[in-house]
Design a protein that fits this description.
globular; 9-stranded mixed beta sheet; 8 helices; single chain; 9 strands; alpha/beta
Length: 236
C-alpha cells in the first residue's frame, strides 16, 4: 500500500553537493536515483523539481553585481544541469524519465505543459521539471508549488537535510522541538522558513499539503510513501 499515488518531489541543489561542497556528488546523485526507483517500482507517479544552488543562485548573484533577471536566468540554467544529471542517473538504472523545461530549449528537454507531464507520468515515466517557473523573481520552491498544483499531485515531498519542521533551526538550536504536523498559518505566524512565502501561500490556497523529511538518509523516501511518520506534515 502507498500513502500517495502522485507526488511532486522537491530536492535542493545544495544537497546534490554531498560532502564535496560544490557541484554534483556522483554518490549522492546515485543514492537519490535508487530511492526514486524504489517508489517508482511501487507504482507511484513522480514529478521532480531540483534547485540549482549547488551551481548558481540568482539572488546571491544579484547581491554581487549581477543583474537580477540575468542572475535568475543563470539559476534556471543551473536547475537544467541538475535535472539532466538526475535524468542520466535514473536512465542508468532503468527508470524511464523525461526532462521538461519551463523555457524552450529543445533538444535538451521538452517544453513543459501540464498535459504532457501527466500523460508521461501515467505512462510510467518520471518527469523532471527544470528551469523553475521560467520567470525571474520566483524561486524553485515556488516552481515546485506551481508544478505540484498543476499536475494535481497528492502531496509535495520536500526532501531536505533535516528530518522535518522545528520550532527553530535544529542545526543551531539544540533545544528546537520537531512538529509532527503543522498548519500553513502556524508556519507564517511563527516565522518558520519551510519554503518562501509565495510558495507556501500557493500550497495553502490550492490545498497542496507539504511533507518535509530528510532525503539524505537512504530509504526515507520509501518510508514516507509507505506511511511512516518520519517527517512533518504541513497542511491547511
Amino acid at each position: 500500500m502507498v500513502r500517495f499515488k502522485r507526488i511532486l518531489l522537491k530536492l535542493s541543489g545544495e544537497s546534490l553537493m554531498g560532502s564535496q561542497g560544490y557541484g554534483i556528488d556522483p554518490e549522492r546523485l546515485a543514492d537519490y536515483a535508487r530511492q526514486i526507483k524504489e517508489i517508482h517500482d511501487m507504482g507511484v507517479e513522480i514529478g521532480i523539481v531540483i534547485g540549482g544552488g549547488n551551481i548558481f543562485r540568482g539572488l546571491s548573484g544579484s547581491q554581487k553585481g549581477f543583474d537580477r533577471v540575468k542572475g535568475d536566468q543563470m539559476g534556471m540554467c543551473a536547475t537544467v544541469i541538475n535535472s539532466l544529471a538526475l535524468s542520466s542517473a535514473l536512465g542508468a538504472i532503468g527508470v524511464a524519465n523525461k526532462v521538461l523545461t519551463a523555457i524552450r530549449m529543445e533538444p535538451i528537454g521538452e517544453f513543459y505543459t501540464k498535459w504532457r507531464a501527466i500523460e508521461a507520468m501515467q505512462n510510467g515515466q518520471v518527469c523532471i521539471f527544470s528551469a523553475g517557473t521560467g520567470s525571474p523573481y520566483f524561486t524553485t520552491d515556488t516552481g515546485s508549488s506551481l508544478r505540484g498544483i498543476e499536475i494535481e499531485a497528492d502531496v509535495m515531498l520536500k526532501g531536505t537535510r533535516v528530518d522535518g519542521v522545528y520550532t527553530a533551526d535544529p542545526e543551531k538550536d539544540k533545544t528546537a522541538m520537531k512538529f509532527k504536523e503543522i498548519t500553513f498559518d502556524e508556519i507564517y505566524n511563527r516565522g518558520l522558513k519551510v519554503m518562501d512565502l509565495t510558495a507556501t501561500t500557493m500550497c495553502k490556497e490550492n490545498n497542496l499539503p507539504i511533507y518535509v523529511f530528510n532525503m539524505d538518509v537512504v530509504g526515507n523516501l520509501r518510508k514516507v510513501i509507505e506511511g511512516e511518520d518520519i517527517g512533518t506534515l504541513v497542511h491547511a
